[in-house]
Write a structure and sequence with these properties.
By secondary structure, the protein is α/β, with parallel strands linked by helices. It is about 40% helix and about 15% strand. A hairpin with a 2-residue loop joins strand 6 and strand 7 (about 180). The protein starts with 18 loop residues before the first helix and ends with a helix. The relative contact order is 0.17.
């Protein structure tokens, strides 16, 4: 007979104060000093600080060009603008993603075509991508969801066959790798977010990266009117108007991001250790489907999500969450509503009943903490909570 569940009056499995172990972002004296130095110099608007971040981030990734943007959404918009996406074009991306993957394409006048995800990886399904290609397909945006790189070999092969530009949404994948290359550098363009919840948090900000000089020039011309003056004449002639946007990154956020970049790999490693310790335990419990990355993928954990199949346990997702929360676990269902079911796209012809695989797996996602500052003690208590609740499955 197992322990008495907390929901039935038994002791909670998780008794630790979780605030310190789960606190994110981690901001310390170095970030404070970096910001204060800029404030004291009055270097808070037009500044070389974002350029310094560009150089350091490009070097970290092994990218040729990097362009600091006001946020990741702007970086995606700049990428799509730079390849000429507009009216009559189609852009393919998964429905299971944050809205900023899709909306810049829609804002540029393109039709967004949603495709299925692989129910194991939760990333874009290459074969459904192939099926959704038409003569109007201009670009595909694979998302390295929750820090797991998509299957880029297959995606790139299909894209090259059809002359489609590959734009990586790497906003969850700072430091992740695919076959030894950093996420964001595998396709034609990559973009990142430095929003405060990300593994590389600057508060706000983003980055476009590419190896293509013309794409870089066009992205600069879109939203960096002062810097356009430094470009060849075909672009510098727009320096007094740009193309209608001001996308430059705040120096204060760039300063914070520069400091955070020094600690990115170490902090990713700590998250990975903690998350994978919990996931290894869950893989022994019925109902939990834990995806193990192949050896050629080095993932990171922006979020820690697993697929739970209640038909294997007889316990509904709602009941599971209720039982775990009673034990002190901070768990929830998935936080991303599917884009193909959202009013903006439905009003423009999207069928909310499409994508049955994506729709099914989306309701099976259980979101867990990533334990960014834990020494392993809190993870142990979470493992205890799951084993305790799993007794109900029997």
């Amino acid at each position: 007979m197992g322990e008495r569940l907390a929901i039935e009056g038994g002791p909670r499995a998780i008794t630790m104060d979780q605030n310190d172990a789960l606190r994110w972002p981690v901001i310390g004296r170095e970030e404070e000093e970096a910001v204060v130095e800029l404030l004291r110099r009055g270097d808070i608007s037009v500044s070389e600080e974002p350029k310094r971040l560009e150089e350091e981030f490009a070097r970290y990734l092994g990218a040729k060009y990097a362009l600091a943007e006001v946020n990741g959404t702007a970086a995606n918009y700049a990428a799509l603008f730079a390849i000429g996406v507009g009216e009559g074009d189609e852009v393919i991306c998964p429905s299971y993603t944050y809205w900023a993957t899709a909306m810049p394409a829609a804002a540029l006048g393109a039709r967004v075509v949603f495709c299925e995800v692989n129910p194991e990886t939760l990333n874009l399904d290459p074969e459904d991508f192939r099926r959704k290609i038409t003569g109007r397909t201009k670009a595909v945006i694979p998302v390295h969801l929750w820090g797991l790189p998509a299957e880029m070999d297959d995606i790139l092969e299909i894209a090259r066959e059809h002359g489609i530009v590959v734009i990586e949404d790497a906003c969850h994948a700072h430091g992740a790798e695919y076959r030894g290359k950093k996420a964001g550098t595998l396709g034609d363009i990559g973009f990142f977010s430095f929003q405060a919840s990300k593994n590389l948090p600057g508060g706000e900000g983003g980055m476009l990266v590419t190896g293509d000089e013309e794409i870089y020039y066009r992205a600069v011309t879109l939203g960096h009117y002062r810097r356009a003056a430094e470009l060849p004449e075909r672009y510098s002639r727009y320096r007094h108007t740009s193309f209608g946007f001001k996308h430059r990154m705040s120096p204060l956020h760039a300063a914070i991001t520069r400091v955070q970049l020094r600690y990115l790999d170490g902090r990713n490693e700590k998250r990975n250790r903690n998350v994978e310790r919990l996931l290894n335990a869950l893989s022994d419990i019925p109902g939990f489907h834990v995806y193990k990355s192949p050896v050629y993928i080095k993932r990171v954990y922006y979020e820690n999500n697993v697929v739970y199949r209640e038909e294997e346990t007889g316990v509904s997702m709602e009941r599971l969450i209720e039982l775990l929360r009673a034990e002190g676990a901070l768990v929830r269902g998935d936080r991303y509503p599917l884009l193909h079911q959202q009013p903006y796209f439905v009003e423009r012809g999207s069928n909310p009943d499409d994508l049955p695989v994506t729709t099914d797996v989306n309701r099976r996602i259980l979101a867990l903490p990533t334990f960014p500052n834990d020494d392993g003690s809190l993870v142990d208590q979470y493992i205890h909570a799951f084993y305790k609740v799993a007794e109900v499955f029997k």
